[in-house]
From TrEMBL:
Belongs to the ABC transporter superfamily. Macrolide exporter (TC 3.A.1.122) family. Keywords: ATP-binding, Nucleotide-binding, Transport. Residues 2-225 form the ABC transporter domain. It comes from Pedobacter psychroterrae. Signal peptide: none annotated. This is ABC transporter ATP-binding protein. Transmembrane segments: none annotated.
Amino acid sequence: MIELKDIEKYYASKGVKSYILRHVSTTIKQGEFVSIMGPSGAGKSTLLNILGMLEEPTYGSYSFMGEDVTTLNERKRIELYRNHIGFVFQAYHLIDEMTVEENIEAPLLYKKVPGAERRSRVADILDRFNMVAKKDLFPNQLSGGQQQLVGIARALVAQPSIILADEPTGNLQSAQALQIMELFKKLNEEEGITIIQVTHSEVNAAYGSRILHLLDGVIKEDVNL
Ligand code: ADP
Ligand code: ADP
């Protein structure tokens, strides 16, 4: 599903290159649940953002579902993203002025899904997440854990092949964090959704099937659990 070959990312300032990622090569198959771990500054978020097409590598090739992402034009890349990728952020990135229901519906509007289908998909997700009673609330009326559930519901409504999550439980208490990890595990095992998360937590990583350890922009270890 994912093939990275010799990915490099650096920022150049006054002729000096600061490398964030070097020689990163790996493959990730459909159905894997991968955790990217490593100290702050190791390049974890940068790697995840490259996988999610939110950032471009400086060098190297990235193939996603058979498409060479690095040579696609912007329009094709956005289409590939909208059709396959659900991104979940540490700080949720919900739209404050929109209700729970409107936040969840937003990706379907971008994808121009017709109204009746939008309403039925959003209703299904609200039901499944036990959030029907909260659908008209705004993000700031919810706990952090509930906001993250909305963030995940919003990612799922577009029926992604893969969920990319950057420290999805980084702002949550442990009970809420466990709930999110249980949900990821279920989505992975029961629906075959590929999951890649950045995490500092060994507890979170233990929910997955593989850990990539990054250090100074290099994959130091690749462990199957
Ligand atoms: P960023 O993703 O912006 O680079 P960091 O990687 O520094 O941020 O940290 C992301 C989150 O993880 C923060 O909430 C931070 O408090 C927390 N964190 C950072 N280092 C650790 C650690 N060693 N163990 C547990 N949590 C950490
Ligand atoms: P991690 O998620 O492991 O904490 P990041 O991928 O967030 O690491 O960042 C890795 C390094 O890249 C950090 O030292 C960060 O300061 C640097 N970095 C990230 N974005 C930029 C940028 N736009 N310009 C320069 N340096 C950056």
